[in-house]
Hints:
Elements: H1 2-8, H2 14-27, H3 29-48, H4 50-57, H5 63-94, H6 102-109, H7 113-132, H8 136-144, H9 148-154, H10 160-170, H11 174-189, H12 198-205, H13 207-221, H14 231-275, H15 280-290, H16 296-310
Amino acid sequence: MNGEIDAAAEVPEVAAGFSAAWRLFAERFWLLMSVGGIGAAGCMLSVFIPYPLALLLRGTVPALALWTLTSLVSLSAGLWGTSWVQIAMIEAVLDPQRKPNWRECYRASWPKVAGFSWVCILFFLALTGGVFFFVLPGVFLGVALVFAPVAAVAEDSAGMAALTRSMELVSGRWAPVALRLFLAGLAAALPGLIPWIGWLLSGAAAPFAMVYAVSLYDSLRRLAPRPPPPAWQLNLPLGLAAAGLALACWMAALTALKIRDALPLLEAQYQTFMDHPLDPEKAQRALALLHGGASQESLTAVYQLLQPSTATAPGTPAPPPTP
């Protein structure tokens, strides 16, 4: 019985998987281009629209609050639109037996944007934390959780349920799945290396990696069910990712504190620069010193050259302005 389960759980052969994904990609190529093109135009428009509206409100709202709110609205609209486009493209190839039109893709994907976005945020945090924790947990999670966004669309899974579902599909198959995903990404990237027309071909070939991932997901979920993986198989790498995120936050906090402590000195240096305009002759000599490269010696020489006219050494008073 175990032998039968192991045989049924084999990942599809590389050639067979590529052939199936290519047929689906070729059949839905123009649908994918339509969905992607319309979505990209919509995202650009949604990101741009808040700024002309902000210009109309200029003077009635404090500038800092106005532009901060405008930037947040623009960023949120862009991220929401990007998620909507990604879901619509998954919907375009999710069912090989049924070919929807672009309107049906966007109509079906709209209710799933919030759940899909949340799964993508969790995936990104897990991947980032894993990379910060000495890289290897991030590499493992990058493959083990790769099907979580697809599961969020295909099975309406939300949050950790989508991550767990992806882990179940990859469990015991991590290496062959990683190899196939790497080859699919490589195949999608190679056209971009062609001289002159690579930029055009790369845009056309980019969806192939997504189509292959959806096709591989569909193949894995159709295999005979396997016993669920032990809890530690998901909890351990996620725990390491959480530790990595904590490390990243700690480093970010230290950096922010250092920047805060350095602000008075930077402001003083800036004020000194404004009070002592740069001598054009010294500027030319500084450029000549940097022409050979920004080495430690050249930077020190430039600082010593410009210091009397544009800055003072830390802890010394600025010279009086020249009348």
